[in-house]
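Sample entry copied in:
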Amino acid sequence: MALRLGPLKIPWLGKDSREDDPYWDFFINTPPADIANTVTEMIRSAPEGNVFPTKAELHTPEITSRHVKELAGYLGADLVAIAKLTAANGELGEDYPFAVICAVAAEYDPRTARGIGGQVPAQKGLFISFVLSAWIRELGFRATAAPHPDAEKLAATAGLGRLNTEGQLVTPEHGTGIHVANVIRTDLPLAADG
């Protein structure tokens, strides 16, 4: 039902306009014909910068962890946790003893919604992990952001939520509507969560 305000008619009030919109479905679900048209590919192919040769003087690992989480939140992360990498979670943790895990709310799951609109959480997550790892390198510590095969399991271990029977992360704040970004492995001294 449309709302009429004098000579103005607002047709979209009262119903979900996305429901039967073929353009919206195309925007969310159809992969781009040329992957070079996506921001995702540009960020993934951008080279990592150098590590600043002089390490910054840091506070305690707890304060440094708080600063990392605050910056990730400022950049757009909805959830952030820090995990200690050990042999138990499939990482030796010798070169990079910590992992920073950032997650963003996702209305559509980027694994199934392959269109440009469905990839918004993936783009946001890539931006966050790229800038955050660059900031850590500017502090004089090594940091690399890359997809992790067990990112959701690592996020659950760090206390962001739990895994459901399909192995998907479920958080109290967002349920399954969450996307775990590239995991940042670093030697920055941090305090692990979870």
Observations:
- The chain is about 30% helix and 20% strand.
- The chain has one domain: 12-186.
- Residues 120-138 form the longest helix (19 residues).
- The domain at 12-186 is CATH 3.40.109 (NADH Oxidase).
